[in-house]
């Protein structure tokens, strides 16, 4: 199943939300609860859906990084926001505020539950915190020569989607590091900023048409999802049917056959040529 969505007038939903196998974070929008309510309807039975801001801003997807083990937030996160997150996250999820000069953590970290790719120039202390809190192996990497690895790829436990200009050699290297299948592609009708255009934790795909609003969290902390596999994804409303087919295959969503990726990607490239 594939349903596209946008946050208010933006299809860059990865800027305004973050999704893992243990929790979902959504941004705050004044005047409508539709988007939050749709997240809650789809996910709240298995993971908590938490509405929040980070440092008083709505671009939470670019500022935080996390997986089922933990959540990393920048130093600009207020004490009130930190306490709100502590109250809403499952008890098994570690929460850590990081003093890192590259404070847009969502731009500089891309991870699943086992591996993290990070900006080559992050502080050594930050690298150690990432490994400890998220319980991952950490690799300093670039994606198609871009240092903002969190912006130009999206990773789940099932697969990965990366910048369309990532070379075959680099794809093979990244796939070896991540230990998951990997494909180059786009979202939002040709956008190469994969991390900004989608969020994922696997199995089936939902691209939801709705909006965020009030600052509140789902008080049902959700069941322990540590033994669950990935089950959902969200992408921008402008994402084409071909792009959806590619990402569904890349992340093994909805029973898609990964062997069909090459043909779908060729169609995608021809469509934007």
List the helices and strands and how they pair.
Blueprint: E1 17-19, E2 24-26, H1 34-43, E3 49-51, H2 60-63, E4 65-66, E5 70-74, H3 79-88, E6 94-98, H4 105-108, E7 109-111, E8 115-118, H5 124-134, E9 137-140, E10 153-155, E11 160-162, H6 168-178, E12 182-184, H7 194-197, E13 198-200, E14 233-235, H8 241-250, H9 261-271
Parallel strand pairs: 2-3, 5-6, 8-9, 11-12
Antiparallel strand pairs: 1-2, 4-5, 7-8, 10-11, 13-14
Modified residues (Phosphoserine): 175-176
Family: Belongs to the eIF-6 family.
Subunit structure: Monomer. Associates with the 60S ribosomal subunit.
Question: How would you describe this structure in keywords?
Answer:
single chain; 273 residues; alpha/beta; L-arginine/glycine Amidinotransferase, Chain A; 3-stranded mixed beta sheet; 9 helices; 17% strand
**What is the level 1 CATH name?**
Alpha Beta
Structural class label? alpha/beta
Q: Largest sheet, if any?
A: 3 strands, mixed
What is the first-to-last residue Cα distance? 27 Å
Subunit structure: Monomer. Associates with the 60S ribosomal subunit.
Family: Belongs to the eIF-6 family.
InterPro entries: eIF6
Subcellular location: Cytoplasm; Nucleus, Nucleolus
Please sum up the structure shown.
By secondary structure, the chain is α/β, with parallel strands linked by helices.
Question: How would you explain this protein's 3D organization?
Answer:
There is one protein chain. By secondary structure, the protein is of the alpha/beta class. The chain has one domain: L-arginine/glycine Amidinotransferase, Chain A (5-stranded Propeller). Helices cover 27% and strands 17% of the residues. It is built from nine helices and 14 strands. The strands form five sheets. It has a three-stranded mixed β-sheet with strand order 1-2-3. Strands 4-5-6 form a three-stranded mixed β-sheet, with helices on both faces. The chain has a three-stranded mixed β-sheet with strand order 7-8-9. It is globular and about 45 Å long.
